[in-house]
Design brief:
The chain has six helices and no strands. The protein is mainly α and 149 residues long. It is rod-shaped, with a radius of gyration of 37 Å.
């Protein structure tokens, strides 16, 4: 590349990028060695770009549709697993609080009131044991079901 920079190089570069070089600029590029070199280099790069775009593989519409559906299924499955995990965590926390309340542990006032309401409902000891076991085992069963997929 020549050391001298022509003041019209930017104008020539813009024109080459647009794909239309005005006749007076084309005549200038024929006389100016700096602009002539720029025209050769940019022309080669633009030809390579056109060739690369022409050779780029474009997938069929059916392939794109299939990929989109596959991605939607994966995202829906991930969202369902997150929701299930949150539900399991809440169920486990509730079960632990109820188990601690049934065992007489010192808890906050609100939890003690909830526990006393459940115990005052006179559900019976076997039903409370079954309810507590279900609250403790449901998250574990859900977790095992997810793991086996």
């Amino acid at each position: 590349m020549t050391a001298a920079r022509c003041p019209r190089q930017d104008e020539l570069l813009d024109a080459l990028g647009r794909g239309f070089v005005p006749p007076e600029l084309r005549a200038h590029a024929g006389e100016c060695p700096s602009c002539a070199e720029l025209r050769v280099v940019v022309g080669a790069l633009l030809e390579e770009r056109v060739a690369a775009v022409a050779e780029a593989p474009v997938p069929h519409a059916g392939t794109m549709w299939w990929r989109m559906r596959l991605r939607e299924r994966r995202e829906a499955g991930a969202m369902a697993r997150r929701s299930l995990l949150v539900g399991q965590a809440m169920t486990l926390a509730t079960g632990l609080v109820l188990a601690l309340a049934a065992l007489g542990a010192e808890l906050t006032v609100g939890v003690r009131k909830l526990a006393s309401l459940l115990l005052a409902a006179d559900l019976g000891a076997p039903l409370l044991v079954v309810l507590g076991a279900w609250l403790l085992l449901a998250p574990l069963v859900g977790w095992l079901a997810i793991r086996q997929e």
